[in-house]
TrEMBL record, chains A, B:
UniProtKB keywords: ATP-binding, Kinase, Magnesium, Metal-binding, Nucleotide-binding, Pyruvate, Transferase
Cofactor: Mg(2+)
Top EC class of this enzyme: transferase
Species in which this protein is naturally found: Kozakia baliensis
Functional summary from the UniProt entry: Catalyzes the reversible phosphorylation of pyruvate and phosphate.
Domain named PEP-utilising enzyme mobile: residues: 432-513
EC number of this enzyme: 2.7.9.1
PROSITE patterns (UniProt xref): PEP_ENZYMES_2, PEP_ENZYMES_PHOS_SITE
Enzyme active site: 465, 841
Protein's UniProt name: Pyruvate, phosphate dikinase
Transmembrane segments: none
Amino acid sequence: MVQWVYCFGGTRNEGRAEMRNLLGGKGANLAEMASIGLPVPAGFTITTEVCTAYYKNACAYPDDLKAQVENALRHIEQAIGMGFGDKKNPLLVSVRSGARVSMPGMMDTVLNLGLNDETVEGLANSSGDPRFAWDSYRRFIQMYGSVVMGVPHHRFEDILEEAKHALRVQDDTEITAEQLRVLVKDYRALVLGETGKEFPTDPHVQLWGAIGAVFGSWMNPRASTYRKLHDIPAEWGTAVSVQAMVFGNMGDDCATGVCFTRDPSTGENVFYGEYLVNAQGEDVVAGIRTPQPMAIARAEDGQKPMETVLPEAYAELSRIRSLLEGHYRDMQDIEFTVQKNVLYILQTRSGKRTAAAALKVAIDMAHEGLITQEEAILRVPPSSLNQLLHPALDPKAERTQLARGLPASPGAAAGAIVFTAEDVETHAARDEDVILVRIETSPEDVHGMHAAKGVLTTRGGMTSHAAVVARGMGRVCVAGAGGIQVDYKAKTVTAGGHVLKEGDWITLDGGTGSVYLGRVATIPPVLSGDFATLMGWADDARRLRVRANAETIADAETALSFGAEGIGLARTEHMFFAPERIGHVRQMIMTENPALRARAIEALQQFQRDDFIGLFRTMAGLPVTIRLLDPPLHEFLPHGENELADVAAALGENIEVLRARRDALSESNPMLGHRGCRLGITAPEIYAMQVRAIAQAAIRAAEIVGKPIVPEIMIPLVATEEELKRTRAAAEETIKAVIAEEGVELKYDIGTMIELPRAALTAEHIAHEADFFSFGTNDLTQTTLGLSRDDAASFLPLYVEKGILPRDPFVSIDQEGVGALVRMGVTKGRTTRPGMKMGICGEHGGDPDSIAFFESIGLDYVSCSPFRVPVARLAAAQAALQKREKTIA
Amino acid sequence: MVQWVYCFGGTRNEGRAEMRNLLGGKGANLAEMASIGLPVPAGFTITTEVCTAYYKNACAYPDDLKAQVENALRHIEQAIGMGFGDKKNPLLVSVRSGARVSMPGMMDTVLNLGLNDETVEGLANSSGDPRFAWDSYRRFIQMYGSVVMGVPHHRFEDILEEAKHALRVQDDTEITAEQLRVLVKDYRALVLGETGKEFPTDPHVQLWGAIGAVFGSWMNPRASTYRKLHDIPAEWGTAVSVQAMVFGNMGDDCATGVCFTRDPSTGENVFYGEYLVNAQGEDVVAGIRTPQPMAIARAEDGQKPMETVLPEAYAELSRIRSLLEGHYRDMQDIEFTVQKNVLYILQTRSGKRTAAAALKVAIDMAHEGLITQEEAILRVPPSSLNQLLHPALDPKAERTQLARGLPASPGAAAGAIVFTAEDVETHAARDEDVILVRIETSPEDVHGMHAAKGVLTTRGGMTSHAAVVARGMGRVCVAGAGGIQVDYKAKTVTAGGHVLKEGDWITLDGGTGSVYLGRVATIPPVLSGDFATLMGWADDARRLRVRANAETIADAETALSFGAEGIGLARTEHMFFAPERIGHVRQMIMTENPALRARAIEALQQFQRDDFIGLFRTMAGLPVTIRLLDPPLHEFLPHGENELADVAAALGENIEVLRARRDALSESNPMLGHRGCRLGITAPEIYAMQVRAIAQAAIRAAEIVGKPIVPEIMIPLVATEEELKRTRAAAEETIKAVIAEEGVELKYDIGTMIELPRAALTAEHIAHEADFFSFGTNDLTQTTLGLSRDDAASFLPLYVEKGILPRDPFVSIDQEGVGALVRMGVTKGRTTRPGMKMGICGEHGGDPDSIAFFESIGLDYVSCSPFRVPVARLAAAQAALQKREKTIA
């Protein structure tokens, strides 16, 4: 005889957690809860094999199913002490579908099955609440009528609305038991009218109707389409779980509540939760009555903790609390009901928690021996560290959302609106908090971004200039908030019907991308000892090194404080915009007089040498990768007439000649233009100046810190071996000259960015000339997908929303496309140069999923913004552990 | 005994053509010429093994070398009837180096070796020209002194200059024999002073000095570097060839000349060439005396053909002419000298020829049975067909070059300068020839480009808009002529010191990129029957199909006339710019009112349907691939205020609103922007309109031509399978609706461009949704190399010039990078869909080298501009034949 039905709860538990294929997800969960000794309301599960047999056999059940179900029903009656259809003490059940995987489109749940004109009176008596009983009955008819019998849901709603109108009441709760009785009659009349059938009064008939509806829904069009889309075979079938309903509102020996095995907001190891005596589950949530605390220790004056009111049930719950943590080895969220002093557990699952709680629970559990150190590492979502590292909005603060953009750089900040970098500095000098609002930012805004509390742009994506720079300096940033109109001339911001002026306050939440009206209170970050513990464990577990992208001493110090093991990307061009330098940069670009050009370059070399000495000193021997000039020259050009006039005066040249030269430097697609090593080849004096500055700085800094310094010089935008060969040869010549001048030894590495598809495709050739590779996955994403990060805002959000792309490829690396090229670059590069040092310095270096990918393909390090270093350390540890697990399995 | 020396010429020929490794390139060539019975001046070659032994043995020669050389010298003396060092009848020799491969950096040649104070008199007597004898002696000392003895070359030049100054003569030829005699003394004194050694007078000492210098030069730094760069092993060594000098200036029974076995400018099968009695080779070239014709048939009145003057030598030469063609199986270029009635062949090689001659010679030789049909196909360089298909500059016409740009579209054209498309049309309407001069062109200039004779731009590369469009319509184009300044306001063109105004004439040579002042005469193309014969043979030999890129009926007809087998790319956006359409396009883009947008789309659909009917009718059942809208919408936007006002009026909208919308559509990097299928997804109504027009047109055209038409709909800029899946599904829905409306059947293919690296990398997925692939190698080159074709002019020419890139990758596909992606796309796509139809529609479709690559990776077709179709047919045939050869070998 085939066993079609598996009981659970009470004294008879026939299923196990592993029987998911047979019992469905819900059935297996219930069996697992019962099997570890939780008092779940008794019930049974009809297996998925019944579903398969049903469809094989022209929608007929196996012969012996009926008998097995009846038998199982009796098991429930015995366990719960009630009778199915019993007028005095009626057993009610829920009927739920449950396939192997959760699947929309199928019938979900019918509650309170077993109610009819007679059992409803029994429920009224036992609960002492006729209104509740009749309301349950009304709801049951509505649910069963629509889900099982196919009466449109809105027809029931129409009747209810009419009744309320006639009774002149606003709210369902104002309808009395007597009035509900009438409504039930109307409902049943509706069912008869719509279907030509009486609403079934026999609970057994009701039950078989619900079971049939579950199996029927397996083949409905919505479920079939979903299966097709997700490659779920129809043969899997669905199971049906039938379970006793229990009620927390049958007297003062009844209660209902929700609790957590630990405090989900702090992670503290205390029993945390709320309950209500003589109430239904929804009352706890609805907030009509004030829920009471669980433990005496947590009760304030006048509160009635469950520990006092229902000591037996509380004791049982306390027992279950440690049982659960012992079994699931995690903090659990529990829904329970006490019915006539008997505790029932309705549901338990891993509890949602704040970032702080996740950290504390993981560390505590490891200390308690409940989980291993490795498991603790895996328990904390790396991205949640952002909440710990940055100020957050006070969850209690009132707020009015103005608009929403991209969560470009985490943290929360409030300030007065200003529109220019200059204005930011003016206000910041007066210690006023300001938010810089721009359509988009450019390198000239960097000093303003630094002085602002936060940055808001209306255009650009997650790797737009604003986003990258803000993350780099740890400033809050919301980018690409397209719903906001900025009018620079009128100095206004228009959004959501509000028109804000310069000086009006707004608040940014860089973690969600929300922009709020006015000043919303924020709370500062607090880093606990647990944070340091976790980081230490992560460092033990990870293989990937973590460096930071930094140019300034301040950023380098931040990076070090967050545990960076070097600098993976110092963007020399960021050093060009300081007011005392940009003039020289412009003169260098704009003049055609060799002497004037040499003068400008000489001036810049002094600055750059000092910059690099500062960086090398700060990093004190840790590796520092300096990228030579990368962006197109036109980024540095004078924009306005005044700036142009300044340059003309400095050079003693005609302003019209300079204007023409400026125009000649403009490009249709600057991202694909005259930049990177192409500049190094056409204007070799610029790279020579930078390399000279690096070599001199390394020698000088080594003397100061008393350790050898091996600078890593990185040549950007290489597409061919020949480009690297020539720029490398030129750099080596310069370094040799410096060594000869200074009369000391200097070791150095010269490597390249792999940021063009061609570089990855021909990495075995390029590796001949490179001591190391650093994958520039921002640019590689742009070229591989043909996607400008500055322009993608017009369609990329739609792509992600519609599922055309799983995620923004500038946030998390596109493993199939861009990732394939990175993998190719690694493999080919190491074919030529085994064990070659390889890292990644794009924005993906701070993204946990991307880091897992980089671990899997064997990179040596990732480099990210200083503020993302802890995230990267943790993600790298998780990736290493997961890889180890996979290797073992 | 090892044979170190191999003789040739006279009666003793010991080498063979295949002994290149032993005899070096030059030695093997001389041996080959001698071995087929050509009267080469006798000589011998010292093998490369001597060089190797020399270096192995601390720079000492093998013991028996001296004896073998002396022996060989005697062979020369006997063959030529002169004595080495003989005072009366002195034998002079040349000494040349010759490695397996030609190699710069080594000693090249010493001529007239054997001269000294005594033999020079013998030469003076036998030539009857003491000046010649002493000048030869002077030159010998200079050559030997610098090359063998290491005296700086300029020191000899200084003495010569001083002498001329003292003698008050301008030209070397004015120095008399007596004066030369003094100069020789001075030269020898210089050698003694510089080297401390007397200039050797013993011819044997001279000879060994020269041999030693050749071997010594094998290891000099320049040669070593060259070998290192080109992976040539030092062990290969060099050979030394020593050969008798013969003189055509020793009397009236002497002569010298150059001839071709056929006419190198027409290809006609007549003996063609020039000679001079009693002259040196350089006299023929120098033009002081007028060379005479070879054959009586070619002689005009008063000329003295060789056939009459030196009948014996002429008869011998005629014999050799057919001997040579029989042996080398190609038209040969011959250098000869007659010394005392004895004919000597100095050199023979395949003769350079015009495109017309190449064609005629190949076809004739095949008809004569000298070569096979396949060889004939391989003999004509495909790119030379451009000369036959387009007007060319009259080679006799005088010309002044103004500037030089890129040879963007072949042919020659002269016309008056105009600056706007509108002005072109005004002049063209009056039948005036004009050249459109622009900094760069945009789609709005297309109608003007069509009406102009040629197009000149100062910016942009080989695949800039101007270049691509001009090639497509067969207009002459010189692009990216950076040396020209265009001032639209002043309506002037400044170049090379000239300032030209509107209306001034210029002439373009699109085959070389030259721009000439004024009107240079051109000659029209003439297509011979041989052209058709060659094309027919090529069609038999090729596997690749050849389609054309065309949108208009006129272009399609041109394509058909040139033998196109279908349309591989019809760019629908080119159809949007006609004056009666662009308004609707702008309204469609600019309005946000759905009704107005629908109205504009409806209007465009009528136009597009008619366009497609025209194309389908013209191609009459041949495949036609229509690409849906590709460029970013902003390309169609109104630029000026008037245009903006027009759109505002048509839409009844505020001009400020429209201006804002226009600005919002502008992009930082439009090439990587909101275009292609991204538009199809965000604005589906545009693709729906186009697909509907295609389906309706295919049905209508099929009725007209009476054949089924299977349109190929191509979706551009696909990066992910999901994009194609959705756009394909939408297109199929539209087609189904049309089929239902029309009540007829319609077959269709829906495919995609593979033009982004990601598409190639994930082609196995994309192939699930594509009936065919067309590789868009223009865009693929831009993204793979990160190179904007519009901006590359600022460094790409330098890259090619410096050898960083072997060729412009927009002209000839970058096989290593872009080619790797195409190969990957082919392989992966056919893994999913075996035998999938694949082609290429980038500009590389007309480039012979690229076509060879496409043949090698198994594409089905190439598609190129109509005017390049013959080039592609021939290149495809050559590629197929070469592949076959490789397979056999």
